[in-house]
Amino acid sequence: MWHITNQKYGANALGLKRLLGLGSYHTAWQWLHKLRRAMVRPNRDKLCDLVEVDETYVGGAKPGKRGRGAAGKALVGIAVEMNSDEDDHALGRIRLQHLENASAESLIPFIQNVVQPDSTIRTDDWAAYANLNDYGFKHVSLGSKELKSVHLVAALLKRWLLGTYQGAVRPSHLTYYLDEFTFRFNRRKSASRGKLFYRLVQQAMMVDPVPAPSLKGPALPFLTGQDNSNLDPLDADLDHNI
């Protein structure tokens, strides 16, 4: 746990295997995914007051078409809480979720799950957000270019996935990587790695056990533009920049 929290940009299974002298890459991979599940605190507080919401596509071998749709990519919902005690563009906590699509049926439940009712929510003018007021939120529709905070988080997420894991993340495992990014981002201002270690240990004691079979997702393509034909199916977070 100390090794994982001490890595500024994230740990990977190959590095953990080498550090601990493990004989199996699979073992290191399972340990990391179990700890990623512990990075989500049960019954965590929802975002509140002023929140920006948008979606972004990650992965995929091709740029894809413009707009809300990109073949071979995975859609991620992003919610960013704006700090009320600082300037208008100060980033607070974030929440991320792997979404099936950009319809209201996917986006509204995501927002309800991560944002407190009566909060003000900024979005672009995508039709799926049009009825947010009917769900107990105060909706403000802006031009896409005005959502600077949520776009910054999207850019940082993509850079992190590409730089730390070479973009090699299965869609079936994407949620766990989003949880790790959220854990690290929300504690980015912490000056003490010891506090991060303590928090991860504390949360690991609060979550349910994670049986190994539950970590194995379906055989889906990697979210990357690389040729992964020679990689082991479990090598979803292989990083060659160690």
UniProtKB/TrEMBL annotation:
Pfam families linked: DDE_Tnp_IS1595
Domain called ISXO2-like transposase: residue spans: 46-186
Domain of life: Bacteria
Protein name: ISXO2-like transposase domain-containing protein
